[in-house]
Amino acid sequence: MLEIRDVTKSFGDVVAVSEVSLRVEPGQMVGIIGRSGAGKSTLLRLINRLVPATSGDIRFEGRNVSSLTGQDLRAWRARCAMIFQQFNLVNRLDVITNVLIGRIGTTGALPVMFKHFSTHERGLAAAALDRLDLLPQALQRADTLSGGQQQRVAIARALIQNPKLILADEPIASLDPRNARLVMEALRSINKEDRMTVICNLHTLDAARAYCDRIVGMARGRVVFDGAPGELTGEVIQQIYGGADEDAVVDESLTSTIAPRHRVASAGDSRAAQAAH
C-alpha cells in the first residue's frame, strides 16, 4: 500500500503541492487529472523521490520512503518505476539495450555502461518487448521508432525493473490518438494482468474515464476530487479545471473499451530466445 501523508512541496515562495494525503491500495490504476501547474507531475516526482518533500511523508508497505538515502533510495527508485512524457531513451542505442538500462537499479551503473548483461537479463528484456509487440524492433536504433513505439519501449524498460509500482507522467500527451490508445492499453494490461499498481497523470478526461479505476483531481496543488470515474460529473470537472475548457481535453478516440491484448512471452518463445542471444 502507498500512503501519502500531508505532503507539501514548495519551490521558494511557490507551493506546488499542498498538504496532499492519499492512500492507494495494491493493484489500483489511478488517474490524476488537473490543469497544467496543478501539481500532478510534482506529486509523482515526490513519490519517486526525484524531488524531496518540504513536509509530510510517503510510505510504501509501511516503510517511510521520504527519508531513504544512498543504496536504499536507489532500490526504491527501482521498485517505483517512472515513465516520462519525453520517453528518455538513448537514441543511438538499439531498442533492447534501452530496455536493459532498466536494470541499472539492480546491477549498478558499470555493467550497464559497458553493456555487460546476462543471458537471463536479455531474456527478460526480450520478453518485455514481445509483450508490448516490439520484439521485431529489438535491434533497431531507438530513434528509428515512432513516438508511440518509443513510449512502449520506455514501458518495457520499467517492467524489467521488476517494480511494485509504476508512475507514468503524461505518457500520452505527445502522441496521436492511435498510439495513445496502444500505450494506455499496455498500461492497463500490466495493471490488470500483473496486479501492478499504476498511477498515471493524464491530460485527457476520457482517457482517465476509460482506463482508470479511480480518478484524483488536483487544483492549485491540492486534491479536490478523489473517486470513481462515474462520479466525475460536470460540476466536479468545473471544480478541477475552473472553467478552463482548453485544459479539459476530451479525446473521443480513447473512450472505447478495449480488452487487454498484450501478454508475457513464454520461456520457450523462440523469438524471445533469438533476441536474447
TrEMBL record:
Highest taxon, organism lineage: Bacteria
PROSITE patterns xref list: ABC_TRANSPORTER_1 (PS00211), ABC_TRANSPORTER_2 (PS50893)
GO cellular component, one term: membrane
Domain ABC transporter, residue spans: 2-245
A GO molecular-function descriptor: ATP binding
Key words of the record: ATP-binding, Cell membrane, Membrane, Nucleotide-binding, Translocase, Transport
InterPro entries: AAA+_ATPase, ABC_transporter-like_ATP-bd, ABC_transporter-like_CS, ABC_transpr_PhnC, MetN_ABC_transporter-like, P-loop_NTPase
Family according to the record: Belongs to the ABC transporter superfamily.
Name of this chain's protein: Phosphonate ABC transporter ATP-binding protein
Protein species of origin: Devosia geojensis
Highest classification ranks of the organism: Bacteria, Pseudomonadati, Pseudomonadota, Alphaproteobacteria, Hyphomicrobiales
